[in-house]
Amino acid sequence: MATNAIWYRRMSPRSTEEEHRTATPLELFFDLCFVVAVALAAGRLHHAVAEGHVGHGVFGYATVFFAIWWAWMNFTWFASAYDTDDGVYRLTTLVQITGALVLAAGVPRAFDSADFAVITAGYVVMRLAMVAQWLRAAHADPSRRRSALRFATGISVLQVGWVARLALPEKLLIPSLLILMVAEMSVPLWAERAAGTPWHPRHIAERYGLFTLIVLGESVLAATTAVQAAIDRGEHVNSLLSLGGAGIVVVFAMWWLYFDQPAHDLLTSLRVAFAWGYGHLVIFASVAAVGAGLQVNVDHELHIAHGADATRGWAIAVPVALYLVSVWALQVFPHQRGPIAAVFPVTAVLVLATPFTPAPVHATAALLAALVLITAGRRRHAPPTPAPRWS
Q: Please, what CATH class does the domain formed by 201-375 belong to?
């Protein structure tokens, strides 16, 4: 009897007021496997920008990162509501992880030759495993069955669309991509209207924070590369060490600015949660892109980049500015208004001017350090978390 309970439990909804709700080891392992896909996407963006293929690199990065983020986000919100941690749940999650690794393996082909067959295969594997999870939830939770079945139906139909897209003529690939992306993001909006799923605010905020740390790790790696290059090559030592130091300041400031305000108390309604959750696409993608931008600057210091010199400044300034605006909109502005909150968008504008300076990474680091100093100590204490309102 106990053995059966380990392998299969009724998928009852989790309480939205459950105390001490934290990420599970399985969720952490799930995130770890997604690191591979994020690293490959950021690496390809770095090489494309360094070679001067900015438009191609940015488009490929945006489309690949959307698939990574969307699969991660759907699992995260489902797990917040229905994580049973039994054998069936773990095995289904393993299938999703396998799909993520297949997706990661297809990233180079998608960037180099616009061949999305492998990425689509990995994505479909992840999403169909998610369908199985939703069907299980529909069976076990009658009060939210309509919502779970809408999720399962919407996801299933769209997987047919993703596979069919591979056979379309080239001129229809981009329009069909945009249509399918919008349709993907519309499924939760449609499904949650039937009956809101019981996600946990503190758990969701922690999960998003953990994924932010993962993508910040890509930027830490880029800064480390600058130091390693200085040590290994024995040339441009001072400039590379200085670049690595500035990169660390940028990454540390980004970490500080994101985690300076509590997020769980913002998630008080489904409408707010959707805006907050979807808006993190920009935060995650821009943080990983900062790592690619730092790598581009290392290449320029070593004179191995073929892109224009101005590219190195924009490679760091654009993602940092996007990060500041998105953190301001999602994390800062809802907490406080007035001059302090306005410093974020002002700093973003100033960051966009750094490519016109001789040392754009250093100038960006100085601006972010100043922003941290201005906002430090003004964090307010979070009030008790209210129960989510499903409206």
A: mainly alpha
